[in-house]
Write a structure and sequence with these properties.
about 400 residues, 8 helices
């Protein structure tokens, strides 16, 4: 231990020997003595100052910029950092909202396209305007009346024509998706009203024939369990409640259009045109009359229309020839099946120009006027049948006058 102390003292003496600093001024020399302990104190102070400087520098570098700063400058930098972070958060929020709105817009657009496509298919079913009717009724070259002025039926005021897709395209440029949906809904309403109007017009024609529209109702072949709109939309089938309601109304409108087409198809084939294409005389009515041979009351299942020999006898409606030949008191007879239970008969012909199975249109020649069979002179015995029951042909001719315009 004494040896260690002696070595430590020797090291201390070598490191911090007593030093003297000489200073010469004006020819006078002075000196200052610095003891070993004074040197230790100065060395310790310098070492402490250097350590603090190194510590502060390291803290500033590793503390993230603002940690080692104090005062206004540090607070300003921290404030800017918070501002930048806030801007980034707002940008992320706006980007998220924009993506949501874009997705919603794309979905709305897809829904509109689906609605428009369904509506276009419906409108194609009622493409003809109020001034047109069934095309096959033009077989004799006549035009169709713009309004069916049937005195026995309710008259309806014609509506403006349905808007076309060009109007929809213009609305896209003008309005919002909400207004577009409202426009499609209005078009659907107008389409349904148009179908109802045209179905009523066709039923009015049937009413004039005395057959009546109630007997000609379209067959119904639908069914299935009842499922509410709410259950349909909540089952994940991809339709919102609004869309489901729209397509439910679309189905209702399609049913109206189907009904319209059913009645118009019947009116297409009805024997409503004149069976003699030249001027004629009405010589004998339908019903009970005095028989020209027995001179007693007897049933007359048709009407007699007289003109000159070989006057052209034409089909009163489109159909298929179901008989062409001689039949008892009819003499030479042509029978045309118009479908839906309707038939027309042309008797007492002098000659026949069609054969069984031929398809005829309105105004097609079927024979020439004569006096074959149980007849007293040249004339046409004309009958109209529905479901094997005869009807007054004059009522069909009266209904035809409200359809055909010469």
């Amino acid at each position: 231990m004494a040896k260690f102390g002696a070595n430590l003292k020797a090291t201390f003496d070598r490191t911090f020997p007593e030093r003297q600093i000489y200073h010469r001024s004006g020819g006078t020399v002075r000196y200052i003595s610095i003891s070993p302990w004074q040197q230790v104190i100065v060395s310790a102070g310098v070492t402490a100052l250097m350590g603090w400087t190194l510590f502060a520098t390291a803290s500033f570098v590793t503390g993230g910029g603002t940690a080692g700063l104090v005062g206004d400058e540090g607070r300003e930098i921290a404030k800017k950092d918070r501002f930048i972070q806030d801007l980034r958060a707002r940008e992320a929020l706006q980007r998220s909202l924009l993506e949501e709105r874009t997705n919603a817009m794309q979905k709305e657009t897809a829904d509109l396209e689906q609605r428009q496509k369904a509506l276009e298919e419906l409108l194609n079913e009622i493409k003809e305007d109020d001034g047109t009717s069934v095309s096959s009724l033009k077989g004799d070259g006549s035009a169709i009346l713009v309004e069916a002025s049937i005195e026995e039926a309710d008259s309806r005021q014609s509506r403006d024509g349905l808007r076309t897709n060009d109007g929809l395209d213009a609305a896209v440029a003008r309005g919002s998706i909400k207004s577009l949906k409202a426009g499609l809904d209005q078009m659907l309403i107008e389409a349904e009203e148009k179908a109802i109007e045209r179905a009523e017009r066709a039923r009015g024609v049937l009413q004039l024939t005395s057959v009546g529209g109630e007997r000609m109702r379209a067959p119904v072949g639908v069914g299935g369990p009842l499922v509410s709109v709410g259950a349909f939309t909540s089952s994940g089938l991809g339709l919102s409640e609004e869309d489901a309601q729209f397509y439910a109304r679309m189905a209702q409108a399609q049913a109206r259009v189907s009904e319209m087409r059913h009645y118009e198809t019947i009116v297409e084939s009805l024997p409503l045109a004149e069976p003699v294409s030249v001027s004629y005389r009405y010589t004998s009515p339908y019903g009970i009359r005095v028989d020209p041979f027995t001179k007693r009351p007897a049933a007359h299942m048709g009407v007699d229309l007289a003109a000159y020999r070989d006057a052209p006898i034409v089909a009163a409606g489109q159909g298929t020839v179901s008989f062409a030949g001689t039949r008892g008191g009819y003499g030479l007879l042509v029978e045309v099946d118009h479908g839906h239970g309707f038939k027309s008969r042309y008797g007492h012909l002098r000659s026949i120009t069609v054969s069984k199975g031929d398809v005829v249109r309105v105004g097609d020649l079927v024979g020439k006027m004569g006096t074959t069979g149980r007849s007293t002179g040249d004339h046409l015995h004309y009958e109209v049948w529905f479901n094997d029951k005869p009807y007054d042909p004059m009522k069909f001719l009266k209904a035809g006058r409200h359809v055909h315009e010469k």
